[in-house]
Write a structure and sequence with these properties.
This protein is mainly β. The chain contains one helix and 16 strands. The protein has one domain: Single-stranded right-handed beta-helix, Pectin lyase-like (Pectate Lyase C-like, 3 Solenoid). It starts with 14 loop residues before the first strand and ends with a strand.
Length: 165
């Protein structure tokens, strides 16, 4: 009898950078599209006019590289950041200018579970943060000047949000 052993090697997690020029990517979404589950994406200061859709488990970190925290501007349409994958870490972003319909347009729209969203600023959106997922952790986020600060349709979420007017 012949026995075959099949080994699946996983790719090591990598870190890539996003900035205006001189980094691995100039678009946050392009970096996410190229990433593998478990990777870390570091986004440098700047304004990114795009809709960020996170559909795989990864870490997305905003870094103040001298120009303030990176800004994701949704340009008045949809959500600035949508998280549909479980086990995502999101930290260090200003999210702004979401669409204004009451359909979940938000600075950060969380549709999944077991995510950690920390140290972000949600300002000038329909919802600062809109969540339909469960068992997510929201810590030290600054929620200000949104039509609706937060909407939590999930269960067992942990909130420690800082609301300012």
């Amino acid at each position: 009898m012949i026995v075959y052993v099949i080994t699946f090697a996983s790719l090591p997690a990598t870190a890539v950078t996003v900035c205006g020029e001189g980094c691995d990517f100039s678009s946050v979404q392009e970096a996410i599209n190229a990433a593998h589950a478990g990777d870390t994406i570091e986004v440098h200061s700047g304004i990114y006019f795009e809709h960020v859709y996170i559909s795989k488990s990864l870490t997305l970190i905003g870094l103040d590289t001298g120009g303030g925290m990176p800004v994701i501007d949704a340009e008045g349409i949809g959500s600035a950041i949508t998280i549909s994958a479980d086990n995502v870490t999101l930290s260090g972003f200003k999210v702004t200018n979401s669409g204004k319909c009451g359909c979940g347009n938000a600075g950060i729209n969380v549709l999944s579970n077991n995510n950690t969203i920390t140290d972000n600023v949600a300002q000038g959106n329909k919802y600062g943060i809109h969540c339909t997922g469960s068992r997510n952790t929201f810590m030290r986020n600054n929620i200000k000047d949104n039509e609706i600060s937060m909407q939590d349709d999930g269960k067992d979420n942990v909130w420690d949000a800082k609301e300012e007017s």
